[in-house]
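User: Predict the full complex structure for these chains.
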Amino acid sequence: MEMIDDAVINIENLVKKFGKFTAVNNISFKVRKGEVFGFLGANGAGKTTAIRMICGLLEPTSGDIQVSGISVKKSPEKVKQKIGYMSQKFSLYTDLSPERNMDFFGDIYGVAKDEIKKKKSFLAQQLDVPSLKSIKTADLPMGFKQRLGLACALLHDPDIIFLDEPTSGVDPLGRREFWEEIYRLSGMDKTIMVTTHFMDEAEYCDTIAIMNFGRVIDIASPDSIKKKYSSANLNDAFIRAIEMDRKKMEDN
Amino acid sequence: MNSLIKAEGIEKKFGTVNALRGISLEVSEGSITGLIGPDGAGKSTMMKIALTLLKRDGGSISVLSVNSDNDKTFIRQNVGYMPEIFSLYTDLTVEENLNFYFTIHKMDKQDYEKKRERLYRFSRLEAFTNTKAGSLSGGMKQKLALSCALMHDPKLLILDEPTTGVDPLSRQEFWGMLHELKEEGVGILVSTPYMEEALKCDFVYMMNKGKIIGEGIPENLSEEFEGSLYEFEIPGRKPQEFLSELKQIFRGDSVFMSGKKVHLALRGAEELSDIRTKTTSLDPELLVRKKVPELEDIFIIRVLAEGSDGND
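Assistant: Here is the predicted structure of the two-chain assembly.
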């Protein structure tokens, strides 16, 4: 493997077993600072288990992860401060106003009041709305909700942001605005980890890793993955990658 | 081909929100009709009106050749429906869920074994009969929900985003099942936010903000595009680094990101060499190529065109 000096996530021989079942089977990879990294896999491939370990929510059976130089095994609490999480579907309180949502998430992460205020006005400016006070989050257009979710995940200024199917259901134009914002953050050296079943989203990543049966079977740029599996699009490439891996396992 | 749904000028308001603004569509037997569009486009509302679960505010609709105002019960008994949210009993097993659906359709008890075998063969869920529905994977849950919706052999299936959140491989299997049903003559109305799935439909309606902004055979939609589409790429650079420059050069045209690339849609035809000339001031590494638009491109072009015509 090539040497990466500015790795912000360094996963080494990570294993997680639940009883006899090996959910994550000895995976190792690095994620660069500022990289947009896609983490893909079929349902049940071990993605969620791996992510929960990276976030310090689940203890590895063996192996370790360094997040910004901190060992997740030794200091899971410190790691949580480095990570922001956004899921398009579930992360906001829809009966509260956008402002109250930001106050709430700011409080949880112990963010200073004037810092929250600054971030509120930044978001209002970005979305080009006068106030985030007088409307219920439930009534916001989808694209706004998604940007609010992202703003909440960024309140404590994390180094790494996890995005879970961030633009599924968002209209194609809203989706593009979202990715412009993600690239802006990546330009500010934020590291972005995306999990998705939506191969259009994966196309925006610098690197993608494909998991199957607890292992990482491919790790490369979307273009190289497409080339490797002679596919016109990432959806077909993904399907071929998984099918070939399954066949290889059956043959052994 | 027999028409299973025929809707004309359907209107629906929720308070002050115009959820549907004159939707006309048709679903035929032995074919797959897709509703493609983002959340809030009106896909679910349209489906619920066809199912008689919601009242329309205007327009006319017939389902299975009957008037949906008079024959609600007939329609509900003869259409198979998979709602957007997984709505089976998660603490019942696969088998118990199937049995429950069999019971509520009040079918002859003797038929159960046959039905069950057939649905298991179709869904390949046989190994999971005693698994609780809640512990199935996303893809298997959807197969089970489809099996339940097929219990009473409906001629018409209405599937609301059945593959959202399901991985690509399971999605492919699910669509394989839909194609088998189509071959048997079933008419299917299916909604999806995944543009790539539109290509698996025989006919698609693109929906946005309660309106149909495009319709046709998916392959034809790309071919019928009157303008021209160009793709720009600078290897190793992120698209937002040259997106705004391209927007400057092609003011008034549609310029948008597509993965690591930037797409430019022109209303008329323009030579590749002209495009090259206009963009020489950009990075010398800039790659330009002409492209056949994909459905996502068509969707965006239509949305942008509507916006600029002030129709919104």
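Chain B has a mean pLDDT of 90.
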